[in-house]
Amino acid sequence: YPSEFLMQKITEDNQVPVHLRVSVSLQYVAGLKGRALVEFFHSNIAEVENEELRHLMWSSVLFYKTPNVEVMACVLLSTKAIYFLLDDSFIHADERQSDFWNKENSDCENSSFHLSCCFVLKLNDLQSVNVGLFDQYFRITGHSADHIVTCLTRDSYNTHTFIQQLMAVLSLLARTPSPEPVDKDFYSEFGSKNTGKMENYELIHSSRVKFIYPNEEEIGDLAFLVAEKMDGLTNLPSLNILLYVLAFQVNHVEGSAQNTSSLQPKTLILTSSDLFLFDEDYISYPLPEFAKEPPKRDKYQLADGRRIRDLDRVLMGYQTYPQALTFVFDDVQNQDLMQNLTLDHFGE
After folding, report:
1. Domains, the chain
2. Which residues touch 89 (CB under 8 Å, ≥6 apart)?
3. Which residue from 140, 142, 185, 134 is spatially nearest to 160, judged by alpha carbons?
4. Is the pLDDT of residue 22 over 80?
5. Residues in a beta bridge with 313
6. Using CA atoms, how far apart are residues 34 and 50, in angstroms rounded to an integer?
7. Mean pLDDT of 71-98
């Protein structure tokens, strides 16, 4: 251990997304290759000696206790746990986290050391994995509010690969069997012999970890929500969601010395007549079992919506992934805008 193939695969996966900035400590990790990366894992992260590193992935993550702070992390999957090596700026992003993160090393801030905190979720504590719509993200749930993390991969391939690797690692766990077979087997869980239709999207792994996938109802609820935001929609059954993707809205920062821009996470939804941007809560839904009250905000909050017929042109960047798109809308026909102008200029 480890095999040459695994080392090559982990080296290839050790790439920070170009559009996201990371701290110096995580840049150091991203620069490691092959055996150096495996040795770094064993000397600095692994908790037991016979642990094997199986998968590495870079992703934005959200914690249940800090749902508004999205932070870049290097996610490491081993045969014992899932490790989230976090950007050190996360510690200072919210003062209310003082009880959630230990600040023992705060006196080292001005030294030459670059610190990262590592959040550990033991595989034995894992209870369920919720996969988001179109595999754009997934949520890992443990036994308490401290142990709920969402990985915003924004990439169905990365999500699928991680879930496959996680299932393979969970198969190695020796868990004591249930006193009686309460859980259904794979075939009865996924379908009925009579109808051949999918009844349930919940897969119970042999390790008793649940893998929960979205069903058609979730798309239906989303379509209904989108329909509510559209003016003059009469035929709801004809509404189809053509595209659902987790993206970033680029906001240029005014008055800065350099031409910098901030990226605001948004959910982009395209229908046959409109383009919508939503602020989505990726961490609170579905409600965990221990939640005593519903979340403070809805799952989807409309941030912007434009009619496709007002779309003037689409500008495309020349870089490869991730692609930058600029949508230019002609809003002269917007009734609300004309009313506001009239009030401002010709009336009190």
Report:
1. 4-101+112-173 (2.30.29.30), 216-329 (2.30.29)
2. 23, 71
3. 134
4. yes
5. 328
6. 19
7. 80
